[in-house]
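Q: Convert this sequence to C-alpha coordinates.
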Amino acid sequence: MVGNQDNPTVVAIYSRVSTNRQTTENQIERLRDFAKTRGMVVFDEYADVASGAKSHRPELDRMMADAKQHKFDKIIATKLDRIARSTINLLNIFQDLKRYGVEIEFLDQPIDSGSASGQLLITVLGAIAEFERELIRDRVIDGQARARNEGKKMGRRPKHLTTYQREKLLAILAENPDISQRKLAEQFDGISRATLIKLAREEGLIP
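A:
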Protein backbone atom coordinates (compact mmCIF):
# COMPACT_ATOMS: atom_id res chain seq x y z
CA MET A 1 0.00 0.00 0.00
CA VAL A 2 1.53 3.27 -1.12
CA GLY A 3 0.39 6.55 0.36
CA ASN A 4 0.78 10.05 -0.99
CA GLN A 5 0.79 13.58 0.34
CA ASP A 6 -2.99 13.88 0.13
CA ASN A 7 -3.66 10.38 1.43
CA PRO A 8 -0.67 9.26 3.54
CA THR A 9 -0.28 5.71 4.75
CA VAL A 10 -1.31 5.39 8.39
CA VAL A 11 1.01 3.04 10.28
CA ALA A 12 1.33 1.33 13.63
CA ILE A 13 4.80 1.03 15.15
CA TYR A 14 5.55 -2.26 16.90
CA SER A 15 8.62 -3.01 19.00
CA ARG A 16 9.52 -5.80 21.40
CA VAL A 17 12.27 -6.84 23.78
CA SER A 18 12.43 -10.00 25.86
CA THR A 19 13.33 -8.64 29.32
CA ASN A 20 13.09 -5.50 31.45
CA ARG A 21 16.86 -5.15 31.19
CA GLN A 22 16.41 -4.28 27.53
CA THR A 23 14.72 -1.26 25.99
CA THR A 24 12.58 -0.69 22.92
CA GLU A 25 13.74 2.93 22.56
CA ASN A 26 16.23 2.26 19.75
CA GLN A 27 13.66 0.30 17.76
CA ILE A 28 11.03 2.98 18.23
CA GLU A 29 13.34 5.82 17.20
CA ARG A 30 14.33 4.01 14.01
CA LEU A 31 10.71 3.27 13.18
CA ARG A 32 9.67 6.88 13.81
CA ASP A 33 12.43 8.10 11.48
CA PHE A 34 11.41 5.56 8.84
CA ALA A 35 7.79 6.66 8.98
CA LYS A 36 8.76 10.33 8.81
CA THR A 37 11.02 9.93 5.78
CA ARG A 38 8.30 7.97 3.96
CA GLY A 39 5.62 10.54 4.72
CA MET A 40 3.67 8.09 6.85
CA VAL A 41 1.34 9.06 9.67
CA VAL A 42 1.82 7.14 12.93
CA PHE A 43 -1.47 6.09 14.48
CA ASP A 44 0.04 4.60 17.65
CA GLU A 45 3.10 2.87 19.09
CA TYR A 46 2.93 -0.60 20.62
CA ALA A 47 5.83 -1.91 22.72
CA ASP A 48 6.00 -5.29 24.46
CA VAL A 49 8.42 -6.69 27.00
CA ALA A 50 7.87 -10.40 26.46
CA SER A 51 9.22 -13.46 24.71
CA GLY A 52 8.57 -13.63 20.99
CA ALA A 53 7.52 -17.25 21.47
CA LYS A 54 4.36 -16.13 23.27
CA SER A 55 1.32 -15.96 21.01
CA HIS A 56 -0.41 -13.42 23.26
CA ARG A 57 1.28 -10.23 24.45
CA PRO A 58 -0.55 -7.18 25.83
CA GLU A 59 0.58 -4.68 23.20
CA LEU A 60 0.51 -7.16 20.33
CA ASP A 61 -3.06 -8.08 21.24
CA ARG A 62 -4.02 -4.40 21.46
CA MET A 63 -2.44 -3.73 18.08
CA MET A 64 -4.21 -6.67 16.46
CA ALA A 65 -7.53 -5.46 17.90
CA ASP A 66 -6.90 -2.03 16.36
CA ALA A 67 -5.89 -3.69 13.09
CA LYS A 68 -9.18 -5.58 13.05
CA GLN A 69 -10.95 -2.22 13.20
CA HIS A 70 -8.62 -1.00 10.42
CA LYS A 71 -7.36 1.96 12.42
CA PHE A 72 -4.18 1.90 10.33
CA ASP A 73 -3.02 0.66 6.93
CA LYS A 74 0.28 -0.93 7.80
CA ILE A 75 2.42 -2.17 10.70
CA ILE A 76 6.14 -1.43 10.71
CA ALA A 77 8.71 -3.26 12.84
CA THR A 78 12.49 -3.60 12.71
CA LYS A 79 12.70 -7.38 12.25
CA LEU A 80 10.53 -10.41 11.66
CA ASP A 81 11.33 -11.91 15.06
CA ARG A 82 10.01 -8.81 16.83
CA ILE A 83 6.54 -9.96 15.76
CA ALA A 84 6.91 -13.69 16.47
CA ARG A 85 9.46 -16.48 16.75
CA SER A 86 7.05 -19.35 16.23
CA THR A 87 6.15 -20.16 12.63
CA ILE A 88 2.58 -20.99 13.58
CA ASN A 89 2.12 -17.74 15.51
CA LEU A 90 3.75 -15.75 12.75
CA LEU A 91 1.54 -17.18 10.03
CA ASN A 92 -1.58 -16.75 12.17
CA ILE A 93 -0.75 -13.06 12.59
CA PHE A 94 -0.17 -12.56 8.88
CA GLN A 95 -3.34 -14.39 7.96
CA ASP A 96 -5.31 -12.20 10.37
CA LEU A 97 -3.71 -9.04 9.00
CA LYS A 98 -4.47 -10.10 5.43
CA ARG A 99 -8.09 -10.62 6.42
CA TYR A 100 -8.15 -7.17 8.03
CA GLY A 101 -6.58 -5.56 4.97
CA VAL A 102 -3.51 -4.45 6.92
CA GLU A 103 0.04 -4.86 5.60
CA ILE A 104 3.32 -5.21 7.47
CA GLU A 105 6.86 -4.13 6.64
CA PHE A 106 10.27 -4.69 8.27
CA LEU A 107 13.16 -2.24 8.24
CA ASP A 108 16.03 -4.73 8.44
CA GLN A 109 14.62 -7.31 6.05
CA PRO A 110 13.30 -6.73 2.51
CA ILE A 111 9.84 -7.95 3.44
CA ASP A 112 6.57 -6.25 2.64
CA SER A 113 3.46 -8.39 3.05
CA GLY A 114 1.79 -6.39 0.31
CA SER A 115 3.71 -8.35 -2.34
CA ALA A 116 3.68 -12.03 -3.35
CA SER A 117 7.43 -12.28 -2.77
CA GLY A 118 6.93 -10.78 0.67
CA GLN A 119 4.41 -13.47 1.56
CA LEU A 120 6.85 -16.17 0.44
CA LEU A 121 9.78 -14.67 2.33
CA ILE A 122 7.73 -14.34 5.50
CA THR A 123 6.84 -18.04 5.41
CA VAL A 124 10.38 -19.19 4.62
CA LEU A 125 12.12 -16.94 7.15
CA GLY A 126 9.62 -17.86 9.83
CA ALA A 127 10.22 -21.57 9.20
CA ILE A 128 13.99 -21.12 9.31
CA ALA A 129 13.83 -19.17 12.57
CA GLU A 130 11.70 -21.87 14.18
CA PHE A 131 13.99 -24.62 12.87
CA GLU A 132 17.08 -22.90 14.28
CA ARG A 133 15.38 -22.39 17.62
CA GLU A 134 14.51 -26.09 17.82
CA LEU A 135 18.10 -27.05 16.97
CA ILE A 136 19.45 -24.86 19.76
CA ARG A 137 16.91 -26.24 22.22
CA ASP A 138 17.81 -29.84 21.32
CA ARG A 139 21.52 -29.13 21.76
CA VAL A 140 20.92 -27.50 25.12
CA ILE A 141 18.89 -30.49 26.32
CA ASP A 142 21.58 -32.91 25.10
CA GLY A 143 24.30 -30.88 26.82
CA GLN A 144 22.41 -30.75 30.10
CA ALA A 145 21.69 -34.48 29.95
CA ARG A 146 25.39 -35.17 29.36
CA ALA A 147 26.30 -32.98 32.32
CA ARG A 148 23.84 -34.80 34.58
CA ASN A 149 25.15 -38.19 33.45
CA GLU A 150 28.64 -37.04 34.38
CA GLY A 151 27.42 -36.05 37.82
CA LYS A 152 27.74 -32.32 37.27
CA LYS A 153 25.46 -30.01 39.21
CA MET A 154 23.08 -27.90 37.14
CA GLY A 155 23.07 -24.30 38.29
CA ARG A 156 20.50 -21.54 38.19
CA ARG A 157 20.12 -19.18 35.25
CA PRO A 158 21.84 -15.78 35.63
CA LYS A 159 19.27 -13.03 35.31
CA HIS A 160 21.44 -10.69 33.27
CA LEU A 161 21.62 -12.95 30.19
CA THR A 162 18.81 -13.25 27.68
CA THR A 163 17.25 -16.60 26.90
CA TYR A 164 18.78 -16.58 23.42
CA GLN A 165 22.28 -15.82 24.76
CA ARG A 166 21.98 -18.57 27.33
CA GLU A 167 20.77 -21.14 24.80
CA LYS A 168 23.47 -20.19 22.31
CA LEU A 169 26.17 -20.51 24.95
CA LEU A 170 24.95 -23.88 26.12
CA ALA A 171 24.66 -25.14 22.55
CA ILE A 172 28.27 -24.16 21.81
CA LEU A 173 29.55 -25.79 25.00
CA ALA A 174 27.50 -28.91 24.37
CA GLU A 175 29.07 -29.32 20.93
CA ASN A 176 32.59 -28.23 21.85
CA PRO A 177 33.23 -28.60 25.60
CA ASP A 178 36.97 -27.95 25.14
CA ILE A 179 36.56 -24.54 23.50
CA SER A 180 38.84 -21.88 24.98
CA GLN A 181 37.40 -19.05 27.03
CA ARG A 182 38.77 -16.53 24.54
CA LYS A 183 37.15 -18.18 21.51
CA LEU A 184 33.92 -18.61 23.41
CA ALA A 185 33.79 -14.93 24.35
CA GLU A 186 34.49 -13.89 20.74
CA GLN A 187 31.15 -15.35 19.68
CA PHE A 188 29.19 -12.99 21.93
CA ASP A 189 28.96 -9.22 21.69
CA GLY A 190 28.44 -7.12 24.79
CA ILE A 191 29.09 -9.92 27.29
CA SER A 192 32.26 -10.18 29.31
CA ARG A 193 34.32 -13.35 29.37
CA ALA A 194 33.79 -13.57 33.14
CA THR A 195 30.00 -13.58 32.73
CA LEU A 196 30.13 -16.35 30.15
CA ILE A 197 32.38 -18.51 32.28
CA LYS A 198 30.17 -17.93 35.31
CA LEU A 199 27.15 -19.14 33.36
CA ALA A 200 28.98 -22.21 32.06
CA ARG A 201 30.10 -23.11 35.57
CA GLU A 202 26.66 -22.62 37.06
CA GLU A 203 25.27 -24.92 34.37
CA GLY A 204 27.89 -27.49 35.32
CA LEU A 205 29.31 -27.68 31.81
CA ILE A 206 32.85 -26.64 32.76
CA PRO A 207 34.74 -27.16 36.03
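The chain has two domains: 10-114, 130-202.
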